[in-house]
Structure formats: structure tokens, C-alpha cells
Specification:
Helices cover about 50% and strands about 20% of the residues. The strands form three sheets. Strands 1-8-3-6 form a four-stranded antiparallel β-sheet. A four-stranded antiparallel β-sheet has the order 2-7-4-5. It has a four-stranded antiparallel β-sheet with strand order 9-10-12-11. Strand 11 and strand 12 form a beta hairpin. The longest helix has 28 residues.
Length: about 260
Amino acid sequence: MSKKLPAPLHACVAHLDTITSVLEPRVTLGQTLAKVPIFSGLTENELAFLTQHAIPRRYAAGELVFGEGEPCSGLYVVESGNVRIFKSSASGREQVLGIEGPGSSVAELPVFDGGNYPASVAAIDDATLLFVSKQDFQSLVLTHPQVALKVLRVVGARLRRLVGIIEELSFTTVRHRLASFLLRLAQSGGKRTSEGIEILLPASNQELAAQIGTVRELVSRNLSRFQAEGLLKIDGRTVTIRDPKTLEAELQSND
């Protein structure tokens, strides 16, 4: 039979538990922030400043983090889960500009130029993001200018990626972009089987269409054509690339 702790000792243990529960998330936040490219190399004191001002926010799959055109209140760091950055047309058509996972920062540019958010961001799956207000981030940069240089490198890499998207949309066919997308999936997470390379498509053809700059109907049509030509085997969202070399040859032509 367990003995009950004396009241003073019980209160002390409860107090320690409370302190531990408060400190543990802060340690985790500091470790997360230290892995973000724009914050890499900061001292413990600098990271402590960020940790004290970073606010965890949780989002369900599909939930909007912020919308295009909204005033910029700060930047976000992805702690867990994945988010997509996208633009929307008046008709509701979307173009995905990028997908960011844990350790990535989002919305660095408007924090600097004072403008609105230039694109929307939504959670792909359940995600936790750390919010750092514009004022707190600018205070950090004024004290530690090297952070601004790191932001420029991150924004520069993102700009190069956007130039690549513009090039694809301007000069290639939907068939070409779909083949390129399938091969990228194969390279990043494909599983080799006796029939070829097995990959998992996004949750819907609508989502896939948004990532390659087209509409759902053209995605469905081109997937069916690839299957009819024997290049793919499609089983729901699971696709096996049976003939990777022929699919790669699609990238050499723009018919």
C-alpha cells in the first residue's frame, strides 16, 4: 500500500513537475530553431531570445496559416508536419510554389519589405508552426546583421526555384511536367520493386494539378495515357513506374 506524501513535500514535487512541463517545450523550441538555416550559428543567448518570443501554433490538415494579401504580422518556422505555399486565381485554381517541412522558415521576405504576404500557406497534414512576430524578428536582425544575410540566401534559393517553375509553365507541356514530377517522386521516396519504382501520389489529382500548374482533368487524362502506353501501373494513389528510362526520355522532348 503506497504512502501519501506529507503536504509540504507533495506541494514541492507538484511545483517541480510544473517547472519541468514549462521548461521542456522551451528546450524543444530552441533545438528546432537552431536547425533553421536563417538561425544557424546563433549563440545560446540569441537562440534564447528567439525561444522566449516564438509562439507555437497548431494547424489541422488543410487549415490556412495565412492568406495571400493579408498584412504580414511575422514569419513562421515549421516544427512538425508540412505546409504548402501557393497562389490562387480568381476562379479558385491554385499553383503550388513550394512545400516546406520541419526546419524550414516561411514568409521571411514580407517581414523585411513591409508588404503583405505575397502567397498563401496551408498545412498539408497536422502541423505545428512557431510564430515569430515582425517586431521581434527585426529586433534580432538589428542586433545580429548576419541573420539578414542568411535570409537573403534562403530567399535567393526560393527565387531560383520560382524561376524554374516559370520556365516549366512557359515552355513545357502538361505531359512533360507530369513526367518530371513522377520522376522527382521516384528519386526522393520511390521504392524499387520487381515491377519498377513504386511511388505515392498526392492525396488527389486536384492537389497534383496544383503542383504542376494545370487542371485536374488534364492530370487524369495524362496519367491514363501513361498507363495505356505501359509506362505506369496505377492502383489508387499508388503508382509503379514500369519504364523509368522511357519516362526520362519524355523530358528530352516537348511535343
